[in-house]
Amino acid sequence: MIQINPREIAAEALMQILAEGAYNHTALRKLLRQNGAMPAQDRAFVTEIVNGTLRNYYYIDYVINQFSHTKTEKIKPWLLAVLRTAVYQMLFLDVPDNAACNEAVKLAGVRGYRSLSGFVNGVLRAIARGKQDICLPQKGTAEYLSVVFSHPLWLVKMWIAYYGYEQTEALCAADNVAPDVTIRVNVLRTDVVALTQSLQTEGVTVKSGIWEENALHLSKTADLQRLEAYRNGWFHVQDESSQVAVAVLDPQPGECILDICAAPGGKSFTMAERMKNEGALVSRDLYVQKTMRIAEGAERLGISIIQAQPWDATLEDRTCIGRFDKVLADVPCSGLGLLRKKPDIRLKKDGSEIDSLWKIQRNILIQAAQYVKDGGVLVYSTCTLSRKENEKNVMWFLQNHKEFQLEDLRTYLPQSLSTQGEAGYITLFPHIHHTDGFFIARLRKKGM
430: closest CA among 241, 225, 218? Predict the structure, then answer.
């Protein structure tokens, strides 16, 4: 019988993500499939180690550098992956220090570094002895939040400037708590009660949504695609923030709607369900493969009104001018609202891309505005917490497109959120709303 060491798989995934630039979900999915004989408990352990290490990356490296004479930037990638995953187990999991140390020493020799196993052992034993006396930056500083909550310093400073120190601390803390999986009930085929019963029958823990009545939060899910309800097309995965964005758009049966940056398709699916599968819904994305996946998802869900088309949203399509009742522009963004779900984002951003992204976002807004009928609606949204990409883009757009005006959101928001949005836009926060960080603005084109 083949023995698969879950700690080795976790270290390999981490090395691929950090040293080779692989995406977190991609590396994990590939390695778990390649090692499909692992028991479910070991698969969950691998996922926890990888995601937990990434969420606490800056803190873990800070600790290693405090106890190691050789600093992290000079440690060989495999040994560094082994050290990082071991430190995560020692500091954040209920794993005995001796077990984490001994297993790490064994792994050091797996890739030909047996001669350096003493180095790994020495660093980890030192951390085990001194972990109660780790010297942190001064409390009340951006540096303290950066280390303790493992967020890049530039991001912490930006958020402090936006939201103040206390809110930034709460936001960073929320980013480090793994969220439940959130799904949207496909009301074309089932309802909340029937779907809940089906999921519970297969051992899934189900909780009601916070803001949306057709949202459910799942835990103990394993592989969603293996569930009968998934195969039956009874739901699709979608955070409640995205569901709220669709609620703000307020799609109605019989309307003609454009989802200009639609991949992976969740908002289009929710729109079609709200439209009762009546009308026309054009779902576009830059890449053909992504539009094919949207079409496949629509077929699984029993949705027939979606037309999935490849198109560069920054380019004008004269055939679409003045054609749509409503347009959703959920634009490419820096993704800073997704750190709970995609912890590797914090390691791959340096803030510089924001200055290139807002130009793309404004270009997409220019094109999207042309496609809205007189009296129609344009919703602009992002999954980031960056004012350059959010409020400043909306203000710029209004200054340059006098035919549009912001519209009070309170009529369209879920009742429990309806005290907000009077200004025409809303920001959702992980630490306040328990969703992804998300920005939504609703703009009405004046009638002739």
Answer: 241
Per the confidence metrics, is the pTM higher than 0.85? yes
Determine the Cα–Cα distance for residues 45 and 57; give it in Å rounded to an integer.
17
- The 10s digit of each residue's pLDDT in 386-405 is 999 999 999 999 999 999 99
- Rounded Cα distance between 65 and 49, Å, is 20
The backbone torsions φ and ψ at residue 432, rounded to the nearest 5 degrees and listed phi first, read -105, -50
Give the number of other Cβ atoms within 10 Å of residue 65's Cβ: 14
**How many CB atoms within 10 Å of residue 232?**
16
The encoded tokens of residue 179 equal 């969220």
What lies within 8 Å, CB to CB, of 387 at 6+ separation is: 162
Kind and range of the H or E run holding 270? helix 266-274
Tell which residue, 332, 302, 337, has the closest CA to residue 428: 337
Local structure of 171: helix, strand or coil: helix
pLDDT for 271-311, tens place per residue?
999 999 999 999 999 999 999 999 999 999 999 999 999 99
Q: How far apart are CA 335 and CA 345, in angstroms?
A: 8
Of the candidates 101, 261, 333, 383, the residue annotated as catalytic is 383
Residue with structure tokens 């103990």?
220
Per-residue confidence (pLDDT) for residue 197, from 0 to 100: 96
Whether residue 383 lies in the annotated active site: yes
Is 336 within 8 Å of 437 (Cβ atoms)? yes
